[in-house]
Amino acid sequence: MKNQKVATKGKLLLPAASRPAKVTIRQIPSGVRGLDEILGGGIPEYSFNVIAGTPGCGKTTLAHQIVFANATAKNPALYFTVLGEPAMKMLRYQQQYAFFEESKLGKAVRFINLADVVLEQNLDMVLEEIIKQVKAANPGIVVVDSFRTVVRKVVATASELEMQSFIQRLAQFLTSWQATTFLVGEYAQEEMRDNPLFTVADGLFWLWQVQERNSVVRKLQIIKLRGQASVPGMHTFRITAAGLQAFSRTLGLSGSKTKPARRHRLSIGVPELDAMLGGGLLEGDSLLVAGPSGTGKSALATQFIAEGLRRGEPGIMAIFEERPEGYTQRAGMFGLKLKAGQEKGLLETLYLRPLDLSVDETMQEILDAIKRVGAKRLVIDSLVGFEMALAPGFRADFRESLYRMIGALTGAGITILSTVEVEDTFDAMPLSHYTISFLTDDIIRMRYVEIDGQLRKVMVVVKMRGGNHSKDIREYVITDKGVVIIHPRRTDYTRLTSGLPDRVGQQEEAAPEPKATR
Amino acid sequence: MSRAPSKMRHFATRLLAYETKENPSSKADPAAVFDAIEKLRPQLTTLMGNAGFRALLSRALSLAQAEVRWLRSVQVKADGSWEGLDALPQVSPEEMAEGRLALLTQLLGLLAAFIGENLTLQLVGEIWPKLPPDNLNFDAGE
Question: How far apart are the C-alpha atoms of A156 and A153, rounded to whole Å?
Fold first, then answer.
């Protein structure tokens, strides 16, 4: 195009290359693990934010964490306390958190009490005092805690217009002074309507502490954030000695690499089963092993991990029902040396049975371990135990979160084997009461069958998304080598899936494991 | 009843010795008896407000009054200023020094109890930046 200028509906636009660059909104870290991911990268610099929620939900701790993550002597933080928690108590309690750096107090983090001005003076004087302190300190971060108490004073003594004007002037001044601001306050969501504060604010961080049955669940939502895309929805968070940790609904996996086009086959550690799977599991597949208690699901999972270790593929075992020592011991009985893998840093066994964990929090533990060892294989044993370890309030989110995690991990090329216990009935062969088969690529079903006065075990590959697989129902035993599929039987049966098969044809054949003779 | 440990008393003694050396008039002048406390006042008022500082000072005075009798003629007014300093009873310079020490000890003790020794020392270090680092330690000279 010869003409460098482009006309659009009467307006002259410069070509993209010669147009002035858009403003770059820098982001500052929140200092809260997981929160930057939820915010879409961090907190927009110079933004004017509200941290709202009910008492005890972690507002002040969040504000402190942001302050300590960013304040330096050159770019300090001013923390104005008003009529909320007295500064002495704030310091007393907040210093218990790991993020609280005492050396920052005074120079980098400065606490200023505004209570006297709020109580004894008018709004103009409050603003004047803030302006005076901000001009003197030139801070990068300003916090007013609790801003609600300032507003209460306004409501009691001044008009709504005065309040609106005060908020407007405060926001304008602090933004012009290049400070990223956080107003902390106890608000109920119903107050969001008609409150000018929420209109003026660039960011609105809402924290909840919800009681569900016997559990307390902490959640946060970024209701509003101008200038960048935050992750929508409610995210759980936890407060520990380290401070807040947030768990994004995307589990921080939104930017993970995608599944490779050419995928290798992975041995499951049982050669006959590999053959049934068409040569092994496809790398990056999610395999569900379903069966009743005692059918060898955990044994198979251990063989899968051990085979990976043998081939130099690191793995993670997230176990929820059995103690790790028992797991390792049983693997040893099968001749599988899990301990050596653990010692070399190629295997981590996560025993996750804490109370009140959220799904995302548990998954974060798994993801952290995967990153630590560079895992290629993951075992979740079992989904039932996983669900039971969660706070009741989180169980409703279980399938959704599991779907997100499995999707993201398999997308990144990690091969997952999950076990699920299903109750055997003798008239049907259910796969899983979770209805989660939609998130698995492959399904192996194990079950008991009654044959010749013995309760034997059979398995079948029910589904394999990536290719053809054997349709045979194969009998197997659990020996000192783990799960061993025995040679195809010469005797034919029908209705094996019912558990009560009918023999077709008569073949004299020895039982795979000897029957009692007396 | 003194709740401040003896190390706090040792620390207050060293702080007052330094303050007297820096400002010799404060030892002799009864009106300047609480000079060290007055130096702490702006910092603590900024941190906790007038009301917060007044409450803390009143508590420290109440504890110190149990140790030093003449302090009972002193009160903290509603605005945080002193009452009774201009009409102190006749006391010896030693008793005066003892009252001065007791009040500072109790105030520092309360601060350490609430915000911890580290933050208290940090605060003192900001107010007396030239205080030798060896002196900025509760355990030194005990």
Answer: 5
Please state, as a whole number, how many other Cβ atoms lie within 10 Å of the Cβ of residue A163.
Answer: 20
Q: What are the chain B neighbours of A102 within 8 Å (beta carbons)? A: 116, 118-119, 122
pLDDT-wise least confident of A194-208, A310-324, B12-26, B115-129: B12-26
| Cα–Cα distance measured from residue A138 to residue A77, given in angstroms and rounded to the nearest whole number | 9
Chain A residues touching B51 at Cβ < 8 A: 115-116
Write out the E strands in A320-452: 347-351, 377-381, 415-421, 442-451
Distances from the Cα of A257 to the Cα of A261, A334, A439, angstroms: 12, 36, 19
Evaluate if pTM is beyond 0.90. no
Residue A366: pLDDT above 90? no
A468/A135 Cα distance (integer angstroms) = 72
Q: Which residues contact B86 (CB under 8 A, 6 or more apart)?
A: B31
Confidence of residue A112 (pLDDT cuts 50, 70, 90): very high
Q: Does the complex come out with an ipTM higher than 0.85?
A: no
Q: Are A68 and A101 in contact (CB under 8 A)?
A: yes
Among chain A residues, the shortest Cα distance to B110 is held by A88
Residue position matching structure tokens 């669940």? A217
> Stretch A324-336: mean pLDDT, rounded?
86
Dist CA A491 CA A175 (whole Å): 82
Give the C-alpha separation, A378 to A10, whole Å.
Answer: 60
Helix (H), strand (E) at residue A395? helix A392-395
Burial A202-239 (b: 16+ CB within 10 A, else e): bbbbbbbeeeeeebebbbbbbbbbeebebbeeebbbbb
- The DSSP letter of residue A73 is S
Does an H or E element contain B1, and which? none
Q: How confident is the model at residue A83 (pLDDT cuts 50, 70, 90)?
A: confident
Which one, of A308, A284, A318, lies nearest residue A409 by Cα?
A284
Please tell me if residue A112 touches chain B, with a CB cutoff of 8 Å: yes
- A112 vs B46, B122, B126: nearest CB: B46
Does position B24 have pLDDT exceeding 60, yes or no?
Answer: yes
Hey, is A205 helix, strand or coil? strand
What pLDDT does residue A254 have?
A: 59
Question: Which positions in chain A touch B46 (Cβ < 8 Å)?
Answer: 111-113
Decide: helix, strand or coil at residue A303: helix
Indicate yes or no: CB of A87 within 8 angstroms of CB of B114.
Answer: no
Query: Stretch A248-256: mean pLDDT, rounded?
Result: 67
Average pLDDT of chain A is: 85
Contact A275, A459 (CB under 8 A): no
Mutation for B interface: A104, A110, A113, A130, most B CBs within 10 A: A113
Q: In Å, what is the CA distance from A179 to each residue of A28, A113, A288, A442?
A: 11, 19, 52, 54
